[in-house]
Amino acid sequence: MPEDLPKSTKERIAQAIIDKIIANSEAGLNRTGGSLPKYSKGYLNSDAFTAFGKDSKPNMTLSGDMLGQIDVLGISGDTIKIGWDSELENAKAHGNITGQEGLWKKKRDFFGLTAKEIKEILDANGEG
């Protein structure tokens, strides 16, 4: 992304990236366009799963807080920083992405886009 773009264009691109990450996640896709790993039988039978009326297809959404709080953390030059201000939501994302924290036993790396998706966003904003 060129450094000389207007701030409003960079903000629009950043929001489009966030929107695409959320849409992919809700569709059960990881950062490379593949399917997210299936839920464990234990989770499928858990009270949390039942209480939130989850579907058996992984979509990175339990309460909606984690995906709902992805935000633009900064824009500098040709760099856009996207993530979470909330330590709790950041920890949830980290656990899902790495599969190494507490409840998360399977790696569900949802946080990112393919080069093709990024190009499409830039093209749609006149910057590809």
Give the secondary structure arrangement, pairings included:
Elements: H1 7-26, H2 41-44, H3 47-51, H4 65-68, E1 71-76, E2 79-83, H5 87-98, H6 115-124
Antiparallel strand pairs: 1-2
Helix pairs in contact: 1-6
Structure overview:
With 128 residues, this protein is mostly helical. The chain contains six helices and two strands, in the order ααααββαα. It has a two-stranded antiparallel ribbon. The model has no long low-confidence stretch (mean pLDDT 87).
Oligomeric nature of the chains = single chain
Shape: elongated
Q: State the strand order across the main sheet.
A: 1-2
Low-pLDDT stretches are none
Number of helices: 6
Spell the H/E element sequence. Answer: HHHHEEHH
Distance between the termini: 8 Å
Q: What helical percentage do the residues reach? A: 40-55%
DSSP strand content: 5-15%
In round numbers, the mean pLDDT is 87
DSSP E strands, number:
2
**Radius of gyration of CA atoms, rounded to a whole number:** 16 Å
| Main β-sheet description | 2 strands, antiparallel
State the gist of this model:
With 128 residues, the chain is mainly alpha-helical. The chain has six helices and two strands. The protein has one domain.
Which key features would you list for this structure?
128 residues; mainly alpha; 43% helix; 9% strand; elongated
